[in-house]
Amino acid sequence: MNMMAGTKEKQYVPLLQPIFSVEEQTVIGYESLGRVRDEKGSLVVVPEFMDPQVTPLRMTVIDRKLLGLSLDKIKDSNDQLFVNMSPDQVILEYEESKGNSLPIAEIVKESGIPLNQIVVEITEKSGSYGTDVLAAGVELLREQGFSIVLDDVGSESSNLERLGAIKPDIIKIDLNLLKKSIEQREYQSILEYLKQISLSIGSQLLFEGIESEEELYQAVSSGATYLQGYFLGKPLEYKEDKQTIRDVVVPHLHLYHEAKRIEVAKEIEFEKQIKSKLMSLPLKTITLGNRVIIDPQSFFKLDPMIQRVYVTDWQGTQVSPYYERTNDSGFIENMAFLQKNWSYMPFFYKHVKQVFRDNGNWQVSDPYWDKTLKKKVIVFSHVNEMGYSFFVDLVLEDGK
């Protein structure tokens, strides 16, 4: 009787999914996705990866085996290899280090591949340790020469503390967040927020899960440096020809940029038209105590998209009522915001900066999503000869 029956060693197989660089217009690396071959010869997700009870040590043993197999596939190339590691596995690497050398670094060195070709993706799974301990482990990985990705931002435990502590080289955006941003405008604001965070900490954005042309356009529009997903290439046992992928992606990028240029030209023309109308108005003000009186009707007659008008002093304190459109010709006078200070709003000091640069013209803000109106809004602003700042909120039609 064969006592070894049923104990056949699992055959681990790493699949490689391409990662495309928008800057370089080609595939710059691959993510290693662990699979195991079952009794029927099919490749399935490693069972341990799906079991929350599996210890970090057991996971690390499997991942190191897959790493060795993956390294063989990028030998003699400049391709980067993206490998996943949970927070607990990062700490385990730290604990098992010899001197300043980590076990993962030793495996890579033995393969003859430079450490700077390896990118460690820190998964968003909650770890057993605090952020400070994780950050120390990540810093040691970085000192070894590895680049760092914070994976699946926007899913399980994503938070600003982890982003700030790790300061990843790349922020990987969660698939579902990208899809929701296409369906719901509010999620577009979240992507814009992540884009600003990435710029502030010097990170680049990688959008995963791209399955359609529309998702590709949304990712690039949201500041993607790197792209990944079935639209670009599926995970395979071999490295797909880069030129084949490039032939698929680059024409779509060209179409995106052509459409974007047309969109920008339309925006500029639209802004010129509104500014021309606003320049026709005399910005007269009458001061009564701490209140400023203006002629709101003249603004609402100019254009049906003008929704709100108000005036602040140079410090940002609102000194006029808040005039809001009610219908084609009517408006209400809202006194609730009188003496409220708006200087904390991002657009206010952008307005101040623009006035210093060019005080003879109306200025315009970037569009933002207004939760009350449930529309995109842009703010036109100007300072009159008395030093009062006029703000005109204009609701954008869909497509503008």
Automatic annotation (TrEMBL):
SMART domains reported in the protein's UniProt record: EAL (SM00052)
Residues of the EAL domain: 1-249
PANTHER family for the chain: CYCLIC DI-GMP PHOSPHODIESTERASE PDEF, SIGNAL TRANSDUCTION PROTEIN CONTAINING A EAL DOMAIN
Protein name: EAL domain-containing protein
